[in-house]
Amino acid sequence: MATVMAATAAERVVLEEEFRWLLHDEVHAVLKQLQDILKEASLRFTLPGSGTEGPAKQENFILGSCGTDQVKGVLTLQGDALSQADVNLKMPRNNQLLHFAFREDKQWKLQQIQDARNHVSQAIYLLTSRDQSYQFKTGAEVLKLMDAVMLQLTRARNRLTTPATLTLPEIAASGLTRMFAPALPSDLLVNVYINLNKLCLTVYQLHALQPNSTKNFRPAGGAVLHSLGAMLDPLTAHSEWGSQRLEVSHVHKVECVIPWLNDALVYFTVSLQLCQQLKDKISVFSSYWSYRPF
């Protein structure tokens, strides 16, 4: 029995030494690695006027779709804003070609990119708040920090991977439709959003239902992409339609890949894995003693 107790005591000493090394050395090594990765991610979200490198460069992206040639165009992205948009739309009914572009004095902020960048900045702030000289005293302290960092990274990733759902009236009221010159016809709605590593443009073509229409009117709910037949109340969209009910008759979606968004998503995934691995190492020690010194 004495031998067993001695072995147990010896093992405990070794484990405590390993745990102290983990807190004092490996934790800081992981924090430094996370800082380096996330600083690379933050560079992908450079905004105009930030830092000493001047305004973010303008990038032109050609819109395309393998399923339709009804919509073609080029979007110009500068940081978190669309600075230019040049779109051609072939109307399905009569093949009339419409061309519309952003007014020269207009830009459209992509809130998803701005929010993702802010979450990355917050994660970096949390990591740098513990410099190399800081001594972590307990595992719980490390777990709390990792949870806070992972929360910010998850929110950053979700802002890119989960676009906000909007009702058709919300799209109409967003102001994007009124940014073009010449003005869009009143039967068109436009939405732009990020989905994963893609910049997406959706054009909805509406038509008025006849007063004697037998269709049941059910207002369209929130969605990322609305389908044919979705209906909306004109009072919350385009007043030019009077009191007529509207229905989506055509949906045109085109998109383009933004390579640096793909890089950012990879950085988020790698960083979350590093955080989880460190949490797992801390948690392993809880199985070796009941008084849980961490």
UniProtKB/TrEMBL annotation:
Q: Where in the cell is it found?
A: Cytoplasmic vesicle, Secretory vesicle, Synaptic vesicle
One GO BP on record is: gene expression
Q: Give me the Gene Ontology terms describing cellular component.
A: nuclear envelope; RAVE complex; synaptic vesicle
Matching InterPro entries, A to Z? Answer: RAVE2/Rogdi
The text of the family note is: Belongs to the rogdi family.
PANTHER family membership: LEUCINE ZIPPER CONTAINING TRANSCRIPTION FACTOR LZF1 (PTHR13618), PROTEIN ROGDI HOMOLOG (PTHR13618:SF1)
Q: What is the name of this protein?
A: Protein rogdi homolog
Species whose genome carries this gene:
Nomascus leucogenys (Northern white-cheeked gibbon)
Q: Its encoding gene is what?
A: ROGDI
